[in-house]
Amino acid sequence: MNCEELSQLLPDLVEGTLPPALQAEAEAALPLCPECQRELELARQVRTLLSTLQAEYVGLHLPADFERRLLARIHAEQSSLELLDLSSQTLLQWLIDLINLIGALLDPATGTLRLQTQPSA
Fold first, then answer.
1. Is the pTM of this model over 0.85?
2. Where are the domains of the chain?
3. Around 54, how many Cα atoms within 13 Å sit in the side-chain half-sphere?
4. Which of 57, 71, 64 is nearest to 102 (CA)?
5. In angstroms, rounded to a whole number, what is the distance separating the alpha carbons of residues 74 and 7?
6. Where are the alpha helices (DSSP H) in the chain?
7. Residue 63: exposed, middle, or buried by beta-carbon count in 10 A (0-12, 13-18, 19+)?
8. What pLDDT, in 10s, does the model give residues 38-89?
9. Residue 60's closest CA among 49, 44, 45?
10. Computed from CA positions of residues 106, 111, 113, 116, in that sequence, does the dihedral angle turn out positive or negative?
């Protein structure tokens, strides 16, 4: 498995949703590449932050591919990924994107979140 293939699997690897054979292959490839290890740590941090956000705003529904698109954008903007830190331009841009996302969900009249409800099945 090459780095690009592994990078595409990171959100599923973090979630634990890969088929067992593919997960084993990804886990075997990780120790061979420090860059992939950094990307995995970044994916874990992003997942934790998104989980925290969704726990605080129970009705908040992010697009299904939001996490994957965010990780791809971070990867595209920074050729040498570093762990998130407060001096990181990537973190700054990520926070701006997150604030814009939340801002789009706020009702300006009430200051509360406009939450989409999932239709009942």
1. no
2. 3-105
3. 11
4. 57
5. 12
6. 3-15, 20-29, 34-56, 66-77, 89-105
7. exposed
8. 889 988 988 888 888 778 777 777 777 888 888 877 777 765 445 545 455 6
9. 49
10. negative
Total count of residues recorded for the chain: 121
Angle at 65 between CA 114 and CA 110, to 5 degrees: 10
Which has the closest alpha carbon to 53: 45, 116, 111? 45
Tokens of 8: 């595409």
Tokens, residue 54:
């969704």
d(CA 68, CA 53): 16
**What are the two backbone dihedrals, phi and then psi, of residue 40, each rounded to the nearest 5 degrees?**
-65, -45
**Token pair for residue 53?**
């956000």
Cα distances (angstroms) measured from residue 29 to each of 3, 15, 37, 41, 45? 8, 18, 10, 15, 20
3-state secondary structure 100-121: HHHHHHECCCCCCECCCCCCCC
